[in-house]
Amino acid sequence: MAAQAPAMPAIRLSWWIDDPRMRRMLLRLFGGALAVFIGIPLLTLVLWSFAGEWFWPNLIPTQWSLRWWQEVLENPRVIDAMVLSFTIAPVVTFLTAVVAIPAGYAFARLDVPYRRTLLLLFLIPNAFPRIGLYVSLAVLYYQIGLIDTYWGVVFLHMIGTLVYMTWITTATFRSIDPHLEEAARDAGASPLRAFFSVVLPLALPGIIVASLFSFLASVDEAQGTLIVGTPHYITMPVLLYTLISSFQRPVAAVFSVLLALPSLLLLVVAQRYLHSEYVAAGLGRV
Amino acid sequence: MAVVTSARAVPRRRRFDRSRAAGVLLVLPSLVYLTLFVFIPVIKAFATSFTVRDRDDAGNYTYRVGLDNYAQLATSDTLRANVIFTVFIAVTSVAIVFVIAYVIALALRFGKGPTAKLLGRIYIVPLFIPSVIASYAMITFLANHGFVDGILQAFGLPDGAFPKIVFDWKGIVITQVWLSLPFMTVLLSSVLLEISDSLIESARDVGASSWQIFRHIVLPLSAPGALIGVTFMFLGVIGGFTVPYLLGPNAPQMLGVSMVYYMTNYFEPYIASTQAVAIFMLSLVAAVYYVRQQFKREIR
Coil, helix or strand for A52? Predict the structure, then answer.
């Protein structure tokens, strides 16, 4: 293949890729730069949350303090937002599971009519730019009175989680050997019994991971909730918008750390599953 | 139930029918949900974008069908600038993410040793950071009198010489890159894993250099899968709100921000819907490609 290509430019372009030592050095440089780019912004947030006094251009706080943490945790608005976030997320996750798991099972195992068309419909929500979808939904909410209501927020959160969980459960059910279910049926188990005592336990790890991500996606959803939930349904990330805009740097930093904790906890727990592609699609944060 | 008691039915056929009925029943709830909360709102947004509201001298509103909203989108300098700005930001961020993610994915696929391992651990972190937090972290990091500015001061940069990154297009792009890196890398890694080692080894055996292998084997073979990631991220950036809202300039605005302002501040659902439709149209090609390719992958 190389014969047709003019030799000189090819060499000039590639000398540093073809030399293993050069390549290793460049990779190290790249890795270091990436670590700084990803890590330091997060680190500055953590520093800010413990800063008693931090006058620019000092690179670390000149005085350390926990008083911002105290202030945030004693603020009733913060408590309200936390309570709301953690009462919406379980409901969203539960409803999503109830609706998505049967659909996932049907797509994986049953002979659903128009299966291909239906699967296509399930991809479409991802193909609409989210904010366009949310604004369209808000226009509808105004007309049917769901704007600024608890259920309005719950149903909005379900747009992302439902599609995601349907895809994950479809893949999970498909990976389970159908013979196991058939054996249970042959032994006299009813379809429901075969599902609950054979298939469901095997699918549980996949379902749990999908549920965790749904829970987090709901806790972290900000832009849609801001549009349909204000002024009465202020979840944690929506409150963070206000805190950032009000330029209370340490307060917003404490709150950010607080809000990031559940996700970072999951990062540790979910390390095992991270190589799977669907983890990335799951958070819908792209 | 009638089917079960029917003597004419062949057992095999009967099971088939029940399976179909059960399938419909199990899929139905999610289909109803998607219809009510995705398909109907989108169709209504299209309808609303063709609705024009007129106010007469007495202050009463009258409604009619017309293209006025689109005319306003096309002729208003502000709105037109917003459309161009949105496309510019989306294309720029996707291009940058693609290059960085490709390098990480290549290192993860072919690299060995501690650097590749470190890359594998750090690139995933932004996936777990909500975009509001990421935006705020970037503000403290890149603002004038922020962290980077502080470091440059220590190296002798005069105060005030730091370029404006936050509240400017650069801030949006950098934060989008930060946020989208994990997804693109995961996707490209999985695409690169599908390229077999034997193919690369045989190319090496006939004397191909690393660059030639990349240029003539890895790049072409990974292109279709990579395009799914590109289109998906394009859709994500073009439909984003949080990052441009917190880090963007006041003018021009990305469509996501301007749409929400028209919706909640000016209470102009008609113009807001028109911008939503504009966003759908801008992303139509990407959306169709994404759905088609993803569909092929899932069906396979």
Answer: strand
Dist CA B130 CA B72 (whole Å)? 35
User: A52-71 pLDDT, tens per residue?
Assistant: 788 777 778 888 888 889 88
- CATH assignment of A69-282? 1.10.3720.10
Residue A104 confidence class, pLDDT cut points 50, 70, 90:
very high
Which residue among A110, A123, A274 sits closest to B124, beta carbon to beta carbon? A274
ipTM for the predicted complex: 0.84
> What class is the B78-299 domain?
mainly alpha
**Nearest Cβ partner for B269 among A27, A139, A280:** A139
Spans of all domains in chain A? 16-65, 69-282
Chain A nearest-CA distance from B48, in A, is: 9
| Non-local CB neighbours of B126 within 8 Å, separated by 6+ positions | A38, B134, B178, B179, B181, B182
Residue B17 makes CB contacts below 8 A (sequence gap 6+) with B3
Q: In this complex, do A130 and B273 lie within 8 Å of one another by their Cβ atoms?
A: no
| Contact across the interface for A123 and B128, Cβ inside 8 Å | no
Domain boundaries, chain B: 2-39, 78-299
pLDDT in tens, B238-276: 989 999 999 999 889 999 999 999 888 888 888 889 999
Q: Distance of CA A221 to CAs A126, A249, A276, B146, B179, Å? A: 15, 22, 22, 27, 15
Q: What is the pLDDT of residues A217-253, one digit of tens each?
A: 899 899 999 999 988 999 999 999 988 888 778 888 9
Q: Output the CA angle B35-A97-A123, nearest 5 degrees.
A: 45
Closest Cα in chain A, distance from residue B7 (Å): 22
pLDDT above 50 for B6: no
- Contact list in A for residue B31 (CB cut-off 8 A) is 103, 118, 121
Q: Using CA atoms, how far apart are residues B162 and A46, in angstroms rounded to an integer?
A: 24
**Other CB atoms within 10 A of residue A247 CB:** 9
For chain B, how many residues are written?
A: 300
